[in-house]
Specification:
The protein has 175 residues and is an alpha+beta fold. The chain contains eight helices and seven strands. Strands 3-5-4 form a three-stranded mixed beta sheet. The mean pLDDT is 91.
Length: 175
């Protein structure tokens, strides 16, 4: 259970895994290990057909302490700290996952029709927490179960271009 200011429509890991596979299939990269996060970010408006989407690389102090990137539904914009953007461009797994997490918010909110409700007092089941959903979708896109099932941790990290923490967590969710 999570405390969140928003409640999303319920989505299970299996729902999000199928959605991630569909995204990869639509992009014709369902059998490619390393998801092209920065190309996806760059060409997202054309891929999705959203002319008003944009991203901005911002100075370190333009985001609150501890926030590496964020997505604004109101402005249909992802803001990314310069150091995170540079890290993602240079293949740093944690930074690539941070960008994909924010892209996952955009995908879930704009494309799949997930609706948000304000939530001030209710403790949510995990599958209704928009942060968990974005984390899950990002993990499923970047570490596809159908490709990594049975692989060792080091191989997943190297082939998918993700951090050890992300690879370990995702492998623990693959049955």
């Amino acid at each position: 259970m999570a405390k969140s200011f928003y409640r999303a429509e319920p989505l299970s890991r299996n729902d999000l895994r199928r959605y991630a596979f569909d995204i990869r299939k639509e992009l014709k990269i369902e059998n490619i290990f390393r998801f092209p996060v920065m190309n996806f970010l760059e060409f997202y408006p054309e891929i999705i057909g959203e002319d008003d989407f944009y991203y901005a690389v911002v100075e370190e102090n333009d985001l609150p302490p501890g926030v590496h990137a964020d997505y604004s539904l109101e402005h249909n914009c992802i803001r990314i700290r310069q150091s995170v953007y540079d890290g993602a461009c240079n293949g740093i797994g944690r930074d690539r996952m941070t960008v994909m997490h924010e892209m996952s918010h955009a995908l879930l909110l704009k494309i799949s029709g997930v609706k948000l409700q304000r939530n001030y007092s209710e403790t949510l089941p995990t599958y209704c927490d928009p942060e968990w959903q974005a984390k899950c979708l990002a993990g499923e896109i970047m570490i596809p179960a159908h490709l990594v099932r049975g692989m060792k941790l080091d191989e997943v990290v190297q082939r998918c271009g993700v951090s050890y923490d992300a690879a370990s967590y995702q492998l623990s969710k693959i049955k």
